[in-house]
Structures are given as C-alpha cells and as structure tokens.
Amino acid sequence: MGCTSCSTGVDGQPKGCKNNGTCGSDGCNKLTVFDWLSNMSLPGDQEPFNGVEVRFKNGRKLFFKNSENLSLCMGDIVATEAMSGHDIGIVTLTGELVKVQMKKKKELLKVEELPKIYRKATQKDIDIWQTVRSKEAEIQKRSREIAIHLGLKMKISDIEYQGDGSKTTFYYTADERVDFRQLIRDFASAFSTRVEMKQVGLRQEAARLGGIGSCGRELCCSTWLTDFRSVKTSAARYQQLSLNPQKLAGQCGKLKCCLNYELDTYLDALKEFPKQDIKLVTEKGTATYQKMDIFKGLLWYSYEKQGMNWHRISVDKVNEIIALNKKGDKVVSLEEFVEEEQIPESKIFGDVVGQDSLTRFDQPKNNNKRRNRNANRNNKNRNRNRNQKKNA
Length: 392
Hints:
The chain is an alpha+beta fold and 392 residues long. It folds into 4 domains: 4-121, no CATH class; 131-200, K homology (KH) domain (GMP Synthetase, Chain A, domain 3, 2-Layer Sandwich); 207-269, no CATH class; 280-337, no CATH class.
C-alpha cells in the first residue's frame, strides 16, 4: 500500500518519500485503511456519507463532518474544529467506509453531532503546523527536566502540539496517582501555551512510539492492533511455553499481545488431552504425567519409582487407560501401549546441500595422472640412455 516514491532505490536501498508523515497516499502511515469503494458509484437515490476520517500525530484518528461540502480526498490537509482554535490533520478516509469505521469503533452515526471541518489548510496553516511540530522534541526534553526537578514519579513519553500552536498535550505514564498541579503551572509559564495532561497505559505508549518486535516485524500495536486485551500467564502455560519474563514480555514491559493469537486453537486441541494430575494405575505401578506434544497428540508418563524412564503414549491410548481405571480395571504395564517412533533410513541423513555424500571418502582417489607422469619420466630416461649408447 506504499506509494511509488517509497520504492527501493539503487543497490537495494529504500528511497523514501521524505515527507515525514505527510505522504499524499497515506500508505506509509500506521493503521492505514485502503478505500476499496473509491471506484464504485452509489445508487441514484442515496446521498454520500458526509463523515470524514482525519489522522493526527502517531495514528490518532477522529471523525468530522464535511459541513461545507468540500471536495476532499485521501491525503488532503485540512483545518478541523477543536475545543479552542483549530487543529491540522490529514484526511485518511472519505465516503461509505467512514460509516464502517465508526461502527467498528462504536462511534455514534449521527453526523450532525460530529465536529466539523473548517477548510482545506492554507499555506499559512501548514507553515505554523510544521513550525510547532519541529519544537516537540526540544520541549519534550525540557518537560522531563521540569518533572524530575519537581520529584514526580512519572514519565513523559510524548507531546503533541495543536495545529494552531495554542495548546500542547503531554502524554505520560505513571504507576501511581500524580499531583501535577504545580507541573501544569510550570509548563504553562515555560512554554506559553495551554497545557493538557493525558495519562496512557504502557501498551498505548508502545503503540505511540512504535518499534521492532523480537519477531523482526513492526509492533502489532503500532501497525494494525487497535484493541488491547488482557494477557495472562496461563496463555503461555497452555501453549507449553517456558515462563521466562524476558522472552514473554514485549517492549511495553507487559506480556506480548501475540500470546492470545493462537490461544483458542490450543484450548480446542487440549480438550482431547487428559488432565495432568490424573495418574495411570497399572499392575506394574502407578505412572505420573511428565510432558505432552500437542501437535503430535502424544504424552509421556513414567512410573513413580522409575522417574528417568519415560514412556511415549498417544492421547487415545491414555484416555483408554483412564477409562479402564475408572471402571476399577488395571492394565498390565505401560510398555504395551508405547508408541515406537520409526524413522525411515532415508531420513536418518539428509543431503541438504545436494553435493555431500557419506560415501565420498570410501572410493580411492584417481591415480591415473600420477601413473602417466611416471611413465613419461621413464620413457625420457630410456631415450636418453639409447642416445648415449649410439654416440659412444
């Protein structure tokens, strides 16, 4: 969905449009929606939906009404209504798909109650917008210094200027309640703007800042994930993952959201497996659970007095033994139900390169060249001896 100016350049290096988030096609931005209804016309008696989706900094999107009936398309920079003054954003979606997005985000479909779009941004609006955006990094650094000086236990993760420069929103994270009344006074006097403080969670902070996950891809929360569901350690247990906090935690410090992606599939597969606390009673002894392989449908059990000897049994046979135990019957031993893994000889060694062979050293080297060399040397010596005899 990226635009053509973001294609690969010389020697495989990405060119990039260098528009710093104002790409006209909006294909380089987070949470982009492709308007697949753009080339379709509406029925004759239906009026087009008057709502517009506008994107602001870090993927923040709001819905507005096009009360002036402006001709808007994706990528247009517009001046929108704000609490006081106006804000500057980029149009990301128009038409019927805006209605779908509003239903998805559980917004009211009453266009009359939405804030309105004033106009398309003029060059003066864009210049002011870019000027205040360029100050954000410096002001963020200064705001952190003020918060540290006041001794507040909070982290200012990001700031956002309103398009006209009249208001600054500070996004922060904190573990406890923070009294920032003095902080707001200091911010207002230091930056000469109206100040708004917004507390965000650790997952929302990671979504705003973005980054690369351990899988090598961009973070799900900053690209396509819009709802943050709670993740529990039981999700890792169901998937037979080691409870290592360094591997299970994401960049936000919480458990990774991707632990929930396949959890339902694992729960459905585990319905066929017996509980781990159930013991198998045999005439040879009582066997306890050791581990399982969900994909192959196998379990490993060992006798209580022989913990080092594990027996590999399929799920169906384990359920069969448990059913017999419930009736009061015992099987002779687990060895009767063991699943022997048979590996074909062709898979014992795999020629992954396509050139190596285990028998490449069995055949002797070819000594024809050495024999020919010795024969030529002997022929030269014989000819020399004959010539010497003739001359004598």
